[in-house]
Amino acid sequence: MRLHTTTWGSGDRTALLVHGIMADHRTWRRVAPALAERGYRVIAVDLRGHGASDRAAGPEAYGPEDHADDLVESLPSGAELAIGHSLGGLVLARAVERLAPARAVYSDPAWHLAAGPCGYRAELFVRGKSMTREQIKGFNPHWPDEDVDVEMASVRDWDERTAHGLTAFVGADMWPARPVVPSLVTLADPSTLVRPEHARMLADRGFELRTVKGAGHTIHRDDFDGFMSALEGWI
């Protein structure tokens, strides 16, 4: 599937941005211009079932490999930088060998969806379709008002079947065996997706890890300055 993309800047270097579940390119509203100011041409996708991209025929076509194939179809290879958040980190890792960026950043990546009552449950995401502005603000107290407005708009445009498309992967080992390119993992504090024992495993496998103190899962929205500081040396 050819994905909808949005571009900022016209620099000589290229940066690719891949959002998480329920979001779209608008989640990068501050990150993308900041990278453009640093000399990048920034390209952000809307994953299938998100934003202005097409919808799949059913939830079975919303698996990680489907998303990864879309990235390869839609984005240029050989970029200087690629950043993926949450689901975007999962699918970027599946596509990174084919996209071949010089460097990759995985922001609180969804490389393991825990099983059990406290683990991944698609219906919890689906409930997000009906959240009010006040509820979104309550869950994300550090977000600026504009990010709350963007979240409401993005969720309205989101196909909730994408959440069900991940159910088959709950409990699966989707941890990358190694960094295909030099790779940074930025972590929330604490991260519910990459626990301390997982962080140690990733470090042993060759990933660099940096924690953004006090930030929630959507680091670039919770603490934009902290997120950009964590990228120093990678952008």
UniProtKB/TrEMBL annotation:
Keywords: Hydrolase. GO terms for molecular function: hydrolase activity. Pfam families: Abhydrolase_6. Gene3D superfamilies: alpha/beta hydrolase. It comes from the Bacteria. InterPro entries: AB_hydrolase_1, AB_hydrolase_fold, Epox_hydrolase-like. Residues 16-226 form the AB hydrolase-1 domain. Transmembrane segments: none annotated. PANTHER family: EPOXIDE HYDROLASE. This is Alpha/beta fold hydrolase. The lineage of its organism: Bacteria, Bacillati, Actinomycetota, Actinomycetes, Kitasatosporales.
